[in-house]
Amino acid sequence: MVTLEQFRYRPTHATRPPSCFDFHRAEPGMVAIFGDNGSGKSTLAQLMAGWYPDFLPGDIEGKGILLGNPVGQLSLVEQSPTIQLVQQSPYLQLSGCTFSVEEEVAFGPENLCLGEAEILRRIDAALTLTDCHPLRYRHPGTLSGGETQRVVIASALAMMPRLLILDEAFSRLTAQATGQLLDRLAHWAQEHGSLIVLFERHHSPFITCCQQAWQLRDGALFPLC
Ligand SMILES: Nc1ncnc2c1ncn2[C@@H]1O[C@H](COP(=O)(O)OP(=O)(O)OP(=O)(O)O)[C@@H](O)[C@H]1O
């Protein structure tokens, strides 16, 4: 589903040599990439989410394939039905143009021009998985950080992506909420034939839910399991 072979990304005006990535995952499931602050996690997450070149200007080298398409071939809009990225700051990812959590989660599927019944089915499933049903009629602007983070994850799930990238997407959740959500996401990935890639600083509790893991260090990925 994702292959990077001797893949290098050199940002415009880079101040350090480019990292060189080797990563391969052909099966659905949940995997993780760990790295310290400044190791390049978010940049790699954005590359895997198809942000090059629209939001990641620069040069690439090597082989990079996302869901069968070479990195940089499709625009972000073309990739949004199949690839979703959730980042660390949830407030920056709300659409800003909806008046309820339900509308917020419906925003993506509505843009896919799906029928009403399918949109409602997706909203229900996403709200259930993320425990967001009690928030359904709340204005997104009134939510806490943790609630907003769960709504942003629900919005990504409602797109039913084949590749879901979660970049420190649990930072505002309690340990208990994180554990429960990880279990559910691991099941969801298997059930839908999707790949979830977690980007995190600490191994625990993430590594135990993942089938494969890598450490991002000194500009390269080292397999952990
Ligand atoms: N492939 C690369 N080549 C050159 N510079 C890079 C590359 N990847 C990342 N950088 C630069 O390194 C810095 C840290 O990158 P990034 O934000 O991706 O790391 P991070 O691990 O997500 O950090 P944090 O955990 O602190 O959020 C940024 O200034 C980024 O532009």
TrEMBL record:
Keywords: ATP-binding, Nucleotide-binding, Transport
Domain of life: Bacteria
An annotated GO cellular component: ATP-binding cassette (ABC) transporter complex
Domain ABC transporter intervals: 2-224
InterPro entries: AAA+_ATPase, ABC_transporter-like_ATP-bd, ABC_transpr_CbiO/EcfA_su, ECF_ABC_transporter_ATP-bd, P-loop_NTPase
Family matches, as Gene3D superfamilies: P-loop containing nucleotide triphosphate hydrolases
SMART domains attached to this UniProt entry: AAA
GO molecular function: ATP binding; ATP hydrolysis activity; ATPase-coupled transmembrane transporter activity
Signal peptide: none
Protein name per the record: Energy-coupling factor ABC transporter ATP-binding protein
Species assigned in the record: Silvania confinis
Lineage: Bacteria, Pseudomonadati, Pseudomonadota, Gammaproteobacteria, Enterobacterales
